[in-house]
Specification:
The chain is of the alpha+beta class and 328 residues long. It has one domain. It contains 8 helices and 18 strands. The protein has helices at residues 5-15, 50-57, 141-158, 165-178, 189-194, 196-203, 232-251, 262-270; strands spanning 23-24, 28-30, 33-39, 48-49, 60-64, 73-78, 84-86, 91-93, 99-101, 105-107, 111-119, 133-134, 212-219, 222-229, 276-281, 287-293, 296-303, 306-314. Strands 1, 2, 3, 13, 14, 15, 16, 17 and 18 form a 9-stranded antiparallel beta sheet that branches. Strands 5-6-11-9-8-12 form a 6-stranded antiparallel beta sheet. A hairpin with a 2-residue loop joins strand 2 and strand 3. The longest helix has 20 residues, at 232-251.
Length: 328
């Protein structure tokens, strides 16, 4: 569990000033959601996303682990010539129950992996499909935060990227209830189905800027989630899923008079590298750098010295908020 170069790579990415480090731009606002674009000039890796692999090349499939299945494990087969990126928070629908990916994974070309997942549909255990499909929107930052906190704790103990399933079911139940969603199987995906028109209406107002490779989402005047990729094209491909998940968070959050500015957002991002750190062999390619700080948790996939995906979640029990004046 000793710290190593992967943590150094992540900290350098977050803490350095331009041109080597990242820059935060003026935000976009939709309701209680504020999105800060993050820019970073860097060399990215060569891979495709899960959506590209399934829709264009049909080279990837995700299935249950054997005929009996396993709640916390699925199997991904990549028959293609390029690695495939699947990210923390991706919603995997169908099979015997809906799951969410526990950690970002770069699946090697022409390989088969067992991948760690959590259930987000407590009331079903029977097959609806033989392969999983990716949801249109990722799970909300609140669900990701609960998953990340327990995943870090358990990975440091066992190296297996497992989560606290009961904590995740509790978060799913809270979001389904607060959004007034009816769900016979207690499925997070029913939010996507029943609130789609509201999500899509706000999503249409929000577009990635040229060269933007990351985004910090603030809801009600506090940071909730950061997702930063090695290249802008990756963010653009995950844009709908991630921004839809942030919008879900905003729909479940009361309006606030607290405003947000670039300075405060940048300060929060710069501090994400502080805290207890550990490095673990990733599932698939690379290493996972895990950091637990004051009011935040962070997980990053680093491959060949490149931070492919840095994901950080605000600890909801904390009182941190972004309280500087708003940007015009």
């Amino acid at each position: 569990m000793a710290t190593g170069s992967a943590v150094d790579v992540v900290r350098a990415c977050l803490e350095h000033e331009p041109p080597e480090g990242l820059r935060v731009g003026p935000p976009q606002i939709a309701g209680t959601l504020t999105l800060f674009p993050i820019f970073r000039d860097a060399t990215g890796l060569d891979y495709i996303t899960l959506a590209e692999a399934k829709e264009a090349q049909r080279s990837v499939e995700i299935t249950e682990l054997g005929p009996l299945g396993n709640v916390s494990r699925l199997v991904v087969k990549n028959a293609g010539a390029l690695p495939v990126l699947i990210i923390d928070g991706d919603l995997l629908l169908g099979l015997k129950q809906d799951r969410v990916l526990n950690t970002t994974i770069l699946v090697p070309a022409r390989s088969t992996l067992e991948i760690p997942v959590s259930c987000v549909e407590a009331g079903r255990w029977h097959a609806r499909s033989t392969t999983a499909r990716r949801g249109d929107f990722s799970v909300s930052p609140g669900v990701r935060a609960a998953k990340l906190k327990s995943m870090i704790r358990r990975t440091r103990a066992s190296g297996k990227f497992d989560s606290d399933q009961h904590a995740i079911w509790k978060e799913v139940h809270k979001y389904v209830g607060s959004l007034g969603v009816a769900s016979e199987t207690k499925a997070y995906s029913d939010i996507e189905r029943q609130r789609r028109s509201q999500i899509e209406q706000r999503l249409a107002q929000l577009k990635p800027a040229d060269g933007q490779s990351g985004v910090l989402a603030a809801v009600g005047g506090r940071p909730v989630s950061l997702d930063l990729f090695d290249k802008a094209s990756t963010l653009s491909r995950f844009w709908q899923g991630l921004i839809g998940s942030y919008i879900t968070e905003s729909l479940a959050t009361a309006a606030s008079e607290v405003s947000v500015d670039v300075e405060a957002a940048t300060e929060w991002i710069r501090g994400l590298g502080s805290g207890e750190a550990s490095v673990h062999p990733a599932v698939g390619m690379g290493e996972a750098a895990l950091i637990t700080g004051a009011g935040h948790d962070l997980s990053a996939l680093v491959v060949d010295g490149v931070p492919v995906h840095i994901a950080a979640q605000h600890e909801k029990r904390g009182s941190m908020s972004l309280t500087h004046a708003a940007v015009d």
